[in-house]
Amino acid sequence: MEYIYAALLLHKLGKEVSEHNLKSVVAASGEHADETKIKSLVASLKGVDIAKELENASLVSAAPAAHVGGHEKKEEKPKEEKHEAAAEGLSALFG
């Protein structure tokens, strides 16, 4: 999980989420940086717009369930293949 936090910290600071930067952040925390996990994380995040994924995640968690007459109202969401592929990469990290 520390690798995810390191990636989010780098993103928040406007730094590139690269193997070198992730290794530096993890090492600065006093932990041993696992090269395999870092490479896997960087590969998983390649092509993912982290800001957009964080926005989508916060919108989903903030959206209350709509109730109509005591029954839940289901919202139909349009499926976008590109969005799903990006979300799969990010969700695999939190698996």
Structure, explained:
The protein is globular. A two-stranded antiparallel sheet has the order 1-2. The longest helix has 14 residues, at 81-94. The chain is mainly α and 95 residues long. The protein has a single domain (2-94), classed as Arc Repressor Mutant, subunit A. The protein has helices at residues 2-12, 19-28, 35-45, 50-62, 81-94; strands spanning 67-68, 71-72.
End-to-end Cα distance, whole Å, is: 11 Å
When the domains are counted, the total is 1
CATH architecture: Orthogonal Bundle
Overall structural class, as computed from helix and strand content, comes to mainly alpha
CATH topology: Arc Repressor Mutant, subunit A
Concise description?
The chain has 95 residues and is mainly alpha-helical. The chain is 62% helix and 4% strand.
Record the SSE blueprint.
Elements: H1 2-12, H2 19-28, H3 35-45, H4 50-62, E1 67-68, E2 71-72, H5 81-94
Antiparallel strand pairs: 1-2
Provide the descriptors you would attach to this structure in a database record.
mainly alpha; Arc Repressor Mutant, subunit A; 95 residues; 4% strand
